[in-house]
Design brief:
The complex is a heterodimer of chains A (110) and B (112). Chain A is mainly β and 110 residues long. Helices cover 0% and strands 56% of the residues of chain A. Chain A is globular and about 40 Å long. Chain B starts with a strand and ends with a strand. Chain B has one domain: Immunoglobulins (Immunoglobulin-like), CATH 2.60.40. Chain B is built from no helices and eleven strands. In chain B, strands 2, 4, 5, 6, 9, 10 and 11 form a seven-stranded mixed sheet that branches. In chain B, strands 1-3-8-7 form a four-stranded antiparallel sheet, with no helix packed on it. The chains are: A mainly beta (110), B mainly beta (112). At the A-B interface, β4, β5, β9 and β10 of A face β4, β5, β9 and β10 of B.
Amino acid sequence: SQQGEEDPQALSIQEGENATMNCSYKTSINNLQWYRQNSGRGLVHLILIRSNEREKHSGRLRVTLDTSKKSSSLLITASRAADTASYFCAFTSGTYKYIFGTGTRLKVLA
Amino acid sequence: SQTIHQWPATLVQPVGSPLSLECTVEGTSNPNLYWYRQAAGRGLQLLFYSVGIGQISSEVPQNLSASRPQDRQFILSSKKLLLSDSGFYLCAWSVGRVEKLFFGSGTQLSVL
């Protein structure tokens, strides 16, 4: 399957802690993106990292990409209760297709 | 600014009935358009995408079809719904090649 795999499937942390989620894929990619989905809503784009980049930051988000291992990680620092959501990686591979990972459900406890 | 409209928000349909979900984009020209389906608590499955009027690429052979009658309109259809068609359907758009996707608010379809 082309679908990306994410782990953990679910993550529960205390407010103020950091949350790390990982994404693995099997094909060569153009870029890799991370999205957030609140329950029952559409997805919102968080950050994009291109295949020739290794690390990218946006506010409390840090994304790394290791193309040799075909993996990426998303780190959310100093998490807040409002960060509770599902997080998905998505990648494109030479076409207009965006393939999504299986998602990580993050719960931040106040 | 660009916006995407997707309706209805929820839909309950009997098995064997037809389906039509509509998605429109405003504020941009020649967008790439996408239909995804999401089973409860799961990832997104790409169903169809379109890079221009009348150009539809199907990713999953099934009883669903898509059409793009206008530049910024994307329609998902079925002649006869199956129980397995239940799910959360999401429309999305992008511009250019492999840049970020913008999603609609989704349609929760229950086939009973």
